[in-house]
Design goal:
This protein is an alpha/beta fold. It has twelve helices and nine strands.
Amino acid sequence: MESTPRGNASKAQRVNPGRTKQADDLLGKVKKDKKKGPQALKLKKIKQLLADKRERHASGTAEDQPEAVSSARAKPFHTSKKGVATPTTKQADTQGLSKLQQKMQQKLKGARFRWINETLYTTTGTKAYDMMRNDPKIFEEYHQGFISQVEKWPVNPVDVFIKQLEASKKRLVVADMGCGEAKLAATVSKQHKVHSFDLVAYNKYITACNIAKVPLKNGVVDVVVFCLALMGTDFIEFIREANRILRTGGELKIAEVISRISDIGAFICELEKQGFKLARKDTSNKMFAVFQLTKVGEAPSSLINDTKDLLKPCIYKRR
């Protein structure tokens, strides 16, 4: 930003060096007309602009820095050099919007969530991972929508698994597959060793990967958790990967939307074909079914049957 000679600078500019002459002139013009309805709103926006300039100046930010980097509204979140997604506050999304505009914004977010959710259910884990890598903000949009959904549930299945792990007196190695925001790790990581995997490293707990191929050695895990995470058309590959990383005798815990399961008996039968034995099932909840299985052997070297129809994708009615 060009400096202004002290003799020609206004008093406001000398007090606030981040303020430009152009902004000063515009501010003066609006102040004269601020009683003319819409001009009052423009004045508020200009004051906010000047406040932003002062903040950038105080922090040593260059005047010509791209706005997309500093604007929370321009990007829902950014990805750091380490690949960890950093969400912004909801205030940035609704700042300056009327109640009607906020309502319309929520409808658009809901439609966006439904599209992402349906896409994840109707594609493979590899394609889903590539989609998130190409456009990481999709993950943020999806999980903001997912959080809104969870708030309406009578119970969150991940809380069931958390209570089970908290009750264990033995220190366990846990793999949380498709972990979302890694609530499980954030809650029990002091008690157990938790590996959290999902398509994007949303926070410090998470390793970004396709959960059909996680970066763990064979037989090193005591418990594998899939909490509403069997979303791809190749979900059985996730189960086979769970078998690979589990020690013999290790536990596989699954929570799934009960309406997705075409035939519970056939679903359990296929899980058992992948080297597991059913230990317990709970279908008492109207929304979710919970399964606990034990690894009793290795998964077969190849799949014989087409298994994608065992779990229905979530397809929404077109509005």
